[in-house]
Amino acid sequence: MRARPGKDRKAVVGRLRIGDHWNAITIIALSQSNPLKAIAEFVENSIDARARNVSITRGREHGHHYLAIRDDGEGVPRDTDGKPDFRYVATHIGDSIKRRLRAEGAAGLQGEFGIGLLSFWTVGEVLTMTSTDNEQRAWQMTMCKGDPAYAVAPKRSLFEDRGTELHIAPLLDGVKALSGEKIQWYLASELRDRMRESGVRVTVVDRVARKQYTVEPRKYAGQLLHQLPPLRARLGDVYAELYLNPAADTNRVGLFRRGTRVLEDLAQLEDFARPPWTTGCLQGHLDAPFVNLTPGTRSGLILDDAYGAFRDACQPLEAELVAIIDAQRRAEEEQASRELLRTIQRAFREALLALPPEEYDWFDIQVRSQRAQPPRSTSRTAAPDQAASPRCPASANRRPGARRSGSSSSSPALCSVCRSRRRRARCRSVHAASSGRCPAIDRAAASRSRSSSSGRCSRAAAHSSVQPTRS
Asked: Which of 3, 158, 202, 239 could be joined to 287 by an S-S link, Cβ 3.0–4.6 Å?
């Protein structure tokens, strides 16, 4: 220790050190609690190695479940002898070689902490890592959970392809239930943009269920929002891909960092637990490449200056999205009102067709289909009670000499509301003001009178036609 220069001469300074290295490694290895996130870490290592094809196999052998990840990338970096440098991988935990390569100008590398390989502790008991040297001979490194030792040895095989293979067995009890379909859906969302940008093809082979899946980058549903305000922060730009949908609990906006998902729902952050992120009307994600992640879980943000820059850059976008969602809701309410009105009108039309017209003729509603009218009698003889009844004021206003179609010239002219359902609105007030009897009632009485008289005449004619024959 040395004295710190300043006003306080008694203060001393020093360097932090790890008292128990193995305890620190154990804490780091167990900090990743999500086995699916650990599998995504392995696939990202293959993408960083510029692999074009990645195969994930879930199976069972020798009575134990296993998980294997194989790629055709560049493999483990070689040492001076041209062999895979497994020693550097095992002895430089927390010192990622990818960080140094990115500082030298390498692009498209995601790893930076050097602890991703230790995530196998949350998946299985033993990790076997295989890679080839410059002469295409295979070498493998074995690591066990809870054991600080590692072993590197050549692998006996006739031919070995380039690339790297991870074999984890036996799996933990909680990981055995992870089906190939669930792994596929998780990777499709977790590595969506990384897979699209790199063009890698990821396949999941589930030998237990005897199925095979191809991981396709997730496609969002809804209407893509164009012409959104640019998100420019002092540390970089934020990429936004948002889609407008009807409100649903499954609609969320995620947070990505360089193509890898960090948060499934942006509203989990306290500063974003407000509209428009909580409305359930948006799908998509925001990608902020400059935010800092928690190294252990890689599923959380450090609330530092980079986070503050990201939060401030999203404020103009929030105001624009709130206006778009309000306009969408107003349009949906208007559409719902129109559909409700059409439903009510259709119900009234169907009801009027089933009701007796003579009892419900005061409804002033137009129907699309007319009822079939019963045929009216063409007899020229008017009943005495019909002739004595006062004429309807509406028919009295008709021009002299005008004849109704389908009616006799000798029959009194009656208004249309009494004979049919036409022009009901015009005659309704006239009938209400009429002091006499309604012609419809008189017409019904006349019809009954004619029916009874015609029946008597028919019986009399039949009786007169049959005369007894005189001898």
From this structure: 239
